[in-house]
Amino acid sequence: MNKKNTIQSGELKDQLAEITETMQREKIEFTPEMKVYFDETLARFTEGMTRGEMPVKKDLDEFVNKLKQWIKMSKEYRERYPSIEAMDSRSVELITEMKLEKSYDEMVDTLQNYGYTDKIPEKESIMGAIINLGPSMLEKIKNFNRPTILITPKGDLASKIQKLDSNKKYLNQGDTYFANPSTDTLWGPTSLKHIVTIVDGSPEMPKLLTDNDNHYLKIEEKHQYLTDEYKNQGMKMISAQEYAMLAQKSLRSYELSKNSDEIIDQNQAINLNAEHLTDLQKVPYVKWFSDDRRFHFDWDPPAAQIVHFRGRPSVQVIVT
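User: That's the sequence. What structure does it adopt?
Assistant: Structure tokens below.
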């Protein structure tokens, strides 16, 4: 092979020294996937050189350029999101693919539209916290039908429902129905801080149970199945407070798009988180009723059966 197209060991050593010096200066560490790529590529170069086969210059240039691009991206994201604990390029790719920055902007618009005035977490701190979830969890979130950032302001559920009902978006929309008062402990505790989560915000959720189980299992058994399914993935069931915010977000989306399909849970009942209940005598759920054009926060006894009973996963990002 023409020597002009190959490199010598000194050139490889110089390039690696430059990259190492840059990483040390910028305090950047290899992510697991980049470490694998670095080790495997360097081993391939070294093995070839041991056999007297000098690496092709094009291959070295590709290797070095990829490392430099990754270092540049890491530096930019670290400056942009100072709360990042460990830069992971795959995590950055995932939040970009899921369009989570846009989701944050949509959530802020919803909060402003419904009249929330408390200071909320900045985008930079939330995105940094999302990156800190790591690629393993973010890969799971990417499997959501619609990964959606929710900001649930501090306060009780009743105050959130008051905002939902005082700013109606749908023609002849009714006031939210509650089988038990919105202040009842059935719906969960008052939130003392802002809670940021990522939920599946798809208008309609897929069924996780078989057709047979969906028809014949008691609601208590379905609740436990869904709770365990999410818990095993490091997630939880969406709470009543979170759902109130997602309801507002979906109605705001409807208002902007005039697409009624944006309104969530028109044909299904969504199980609500019940971890706060020591004795599950009432299984809480919620759905949108098209007949009276409002959300129904309801419950059934453990032995009841509801065919279209599904869940929404939630992953906590930050509490502030």
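The chain has a mean pLDDT of 88.
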